[in-house]
Write a structure and sequence with these properties.
Strand order of the largest sheet: 1-4-3-2
Number of strands: 4
CATH topology: Double Stranded RNA Binding Domain
Number of helices: 3
Strand content: 15-25%
Order of helices and strands: HEHEEEH
Radius of gyration: 13 Å
Largest sheet: 4 strands, antiparallel
CATH class: Alpha Beta
CATH architecture: 2-Layer Sandwich
Helix content: 25-40%
């Protein structure tokens, strides 16, 4: 089950050809998604999982992640609040779908 959730998120990052992503604009960027009660362990879990899949994650509590036409940013307050924004994505992927994948991914590391 966990592998399916991780793979669903990574499909957005790894499978979509980079040439098909359009320039960042209102249609390709999504509203930020904010998570509360994200512990330091959960935050590190997320970063490690992305790195395990070959996605470069910058050090620290904020940064940008980009892979094959999908670009997102994250900001964690160092205590419990994490905000993730999909800034650029293929035009055929809705923000709702992107947000659902992000939520599933975060929930896997965050736990119940």
């Amino acid at each position: 089950m966990k592998m399916k959730l991780i793979i669903s998120l990574l499909v957005m990052c790894l499978v979509f050809p980079s040439g098909l992503a359009q320039a960042q604009n209102e249609e390709n960027s999504c509203k930020p998604v904010t998570f509360v009660n994200v512990t330091p362990d959960a935050f590190e879990c997320m970063k490690n999982r992305l790195q395990d899949y070959g996605i470069d994650v910058p050090p620290g509590n904020e940064g940008e992640i980009s892979e094959r036409g999908v670009t997102g940013s994250f900001e964690w307050d160092g205590k419990s609040v994490l905000t993730i924004t999909i800034e650029e994505k293929p035009f055929w992927v809705s923000c709702e779908t992107a947000d659902e994948r992000v939520i599933l991914f975060v929930d896997e590391c965050k736990g119940p």
